[in-house]
Each structure stands twice: as C-alpha cells, then as structure tokens.
C-alpha cells in the first residue's frame, strides 16, 4: 500500500465508494419492488373488504339503533354509539 501514489489511493477509494453506492441502489430497488407488490396486494384484496364491511355497517347499524331507541334505551345508544 505504501507504493501506491496519492492519485491511485484516491482512485481506489472513489471506486470502492461507487461500488458501495451501486450495491445500495440495487438493494433499494429490490426492496421497493417488494413493498410495491405488498401494497398492490393490500389495495386489491384487503381494502375492498374494508369498504364492504363499512357499507354493511351503514346498512345494519341504523335499524339496530332505531330498535334500541324504540325500546327506551336512547341513553345507551347515545353513550355507546354516539347517536
């Protein structure tokens, strides 16, 4: 290492730095593609189920609360369900 000139040492250092950056960039691209596949899987399968569940709640809960109020449990409905 002592026989290398300062120019060769600097060149070797920058070459190692460039290789490290290329490796980190490739690894990042691989990880981002993995995250993208997971996000697409989430939006294609889980998110529609959440929307369907929300719609189900909007159609089932109001009649349920109406029955609660008609039986004299309006205070309970206000306390627990905010209506």
How is this structure best described in words?
The chain is mainly α. Helix content is about 90%, strand content about 0%. It has 2 helices and no strands. The chain has helices spanning about 5-70, 75-80. The mean pLDDT is about 80.
Order of helices and strands: HH
Largest sheet: none
User: Could you name the ranges where pLDDT drops below 50 across 5 or more consecutive residues?
Assistant: none
| Structure summary, number of beta strands | 0
Which radius of gyration do the C-alpha atoms yield?
31 Å
Question: Into which percent range does the helicity of residues fall?
Answer: over 70%
* Overall SS class: mainly alpha
Distance between the termini: 79 Å
The overall pLDDT, averaged over residues, is 80
Number of DSSP helical runs: 2
What sort of overall outline do the alpha carbons produce when their principal axes are compared?
rod-shaped
Blueprint (SSEs and pairs):
Elements: H1 6-70, H2 74-81
Helix pairs in contact: 1-2
Features:
mainly alpha, about 80 residues
Describe this structure in a few short sentences.
With 83 residues, the chain is mainly alpha-helical.
């Amino acid at each position: 290492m002592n026989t290398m000139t300062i120019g060769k040492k600097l060149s070797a250092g920058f070459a190692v730095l460039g290789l490290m950056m290329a490796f980190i960039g490739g690894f990042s691209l691989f990880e981002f593609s993995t995250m993208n596949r997971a996000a697409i899987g989430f939006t294609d399968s889980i998110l529609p189920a959440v929307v369907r569940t929300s719609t189900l709640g909007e159609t089932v809960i109001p009649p349920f609360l109406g029955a609660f109020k008609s039986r004299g449990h309006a205070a309970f409905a206000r306390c627990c369900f905010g209506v």
